[in-house]
Fold this protein.
Amino acid sequence: MNSLTEIKTLVVTAFGLLTSMFSPIQDFMMAMLILLTVNLFFGIASAVARGEKWSWKKASMFFVFCGGLFFCFASMFAVGHFLHNDAEAALCVKYACFIAVWVFGTNILKNWRKMRRKGTTTYKFVDILLYVLTVQFVEKLPWVKKWQDEQSDSKDV
């Protein structure tokens, strides 16, 4: 066998090993990819609706966020996997996904609201959804409210 074939075999084997190791969180990874793609489309649509010019920097942030989230989730799961605690590691990834859904969901709603005219039915609908997600959701989770309060206090300084 030549060395190129051996390298190909090594890469395919390593890829297969990683995909089988991360198979318990593959649904979470796919959900985050869908969420970030929706966030990208709403961000682009909002910018176009407001007359902004195309920015590769803003568009490339999609890949940065995807890479960062996937690395973070994979790292959390890998640590739990190597500690022989896959169930709790998957639970940590699940909670991190909930936080990501909240953060990116509010961003999607903000971008959607920017595309609507004030006073329209759609604007009011999105505004209510955004209120529920940013205020009512936070009230149910005291640690998120505490974080949000700390963030608003640090901006006042």
